Amino acid sequence: MNRQLPLAPVIPFVCAPGYPFAAQWQAALQAAMPHERVVALDTLDADARAACDFAIVANPDTRDLATLPRLKWVHSVWAGVERLVEDLQHSPLEIVRLVDPQLADTMAEAVLAWTLYLHRDMPRYARQQAQGQWLAHDYVPPQEKTVALLGLGELGMASAAKLLAAGFRVAGWSRSRKAVPGVQCHAGEDELAAMLASADILVCLLPLTPQTQGMLNATTLALLRPGASLINFARGAIVDDEALRAALDAQRLAHAVLDVFREEPLPAPQWQWQHPRVTVLPHISAPTHRGTASAIVAANVRYYRETGAMPALVDKQRRY
Ligand code: NAP
After folding, report:
1. Residues 6+ apart with CB under 8 A from 112
2. Is the pTM of this model over 0.90?
3. What's the 207 CA to ligand 1 centre distance in angstroms?
4. What's the CA gap between 146 and 195, in Å, rounded?
């Protein structure tokens, strides 16, 4: 007798219209969850949509999510979810974000790479070469330089470990107090000034929230040591661009490595492209690895199927 196996449940994959990697994501997620059926939202009829209580999302249009009437939660394949949090602020829908040790490792590698770029004065020697100038500057060892991390979450913690191993003094700032061996930990607004004053290289790894938006402004940038540098690997809107430009023009800030911008791709007329003290990167500091990310999503889906409990949720009140 030919017994038919029941069809696996359906998980809709919802992404922005025209997203170029939709098929690759769907394939990677499906491979990580052979007992589920990961399908594009637009292939589902109304009955199938009514049967879905969670979805996997990549920067979705939240109006598409509204076509899933029983939806309780969404799993983002990205770590940064500020737009989703904003759009779903007044919705009962819960959000799970990607927490992937591989992503944290990739970010920590980028933090170390661009810290070394600044530490060994590479932008300065490149400027000198362009002018045919042979001029050596004093070498300051990493033990005498402080790298200050704004954010001691998944990415900040992984970065701190790599920086410590490379010999740097490391400071960190978070909302709640942390105790990390070897790291000078600061917490809350009251301790921000002290941390900024200690920084030779300031690395931003904060989520974009109403509290962090524009927080690197004329006032806070002025608290940095003269000649300090900035690395922004978090979100463009955390930095006040005009204040940054003024600090660079005045050479109070030696250099800025920027991977994220208010508008991406960074439009051609924007000053950052041409500024001699800015390194522009096209949002490449920590790309999500589809394979490891899909395995994490699959583990969270399995947990939900087995326990009925949602995986760790984004705090919509806190906004991250
Ligand atoms: P996370 O684990 O949520 O950590 C966020 C950290 O920021 C926490 O230490 C948190 O403090 C701190 N924080 C938040 N608001 C604060 C405030 N108002 N004052 C002081 N500290 C505050 O996030 P993550 O996984 O490390 O990721 C951080 C951000 O990196 C993401 O939100 C995303 O925007 C960005 N990102 C960028 C890329 C890229 O390719 N450029 C890739 C991935 C992620 P507590 O520990 O006290 O909560």
Report:
1. 159, 162, 163, 166
2. yes
3. 4
4. 10
235 is catalytic: yes
81, 173, 206: residue to mutate for ligand 1 pocket, most atoms within 8 A of CB:
206
* 98 alpha-carbon distance from chain centroid: 10
Query: Are 245 and 143 in a shared domain?
Result: yes
Catalytic residue among 245, 283, 290, 319: 283
pLDDT tens sequence across 206-253: 999 999 999 999 999 999 999 999 999 999 999 999 999 999 999 999
Distance 128 CA to ligand 1 centre (A): 36
Measured in angstroms, how far is the CA atom of residue 205 from the centroid of ligand 1? 5
Distance (Å, whole) CA 228 – CA 244: 12
CA distance 244 to 247: 5
Domain residues for 189?
Answer: 104-280
Which residues are within 8 A (CB) of 13 and not within 5 positions of it... i.e. 6 or more apart? Answer: 22, 25, 26, 29, 38, 39, 40, 41, 55, 56, 57, 58
283 annotated active-site: yes
Residue range 23-35: average pLDDT? Answer: 97
Instruction: Let me know if residue 142 belongs to a domain.
Output: yes
Residue 3 belongs to a domain: no
Protein residues whose CB sits closer than 6 Å to any atom of ligand 1 = 79-80, 151-156, 173-176, 205-209, 211-212, 233-235, 259-260, 283, 285-286, 320
One domain for residues 160 and 37 = no
CB 259 within 8 A of CB 281: yes
- Calculate ∠ Cα 116-122-127, nearest 5°: 160
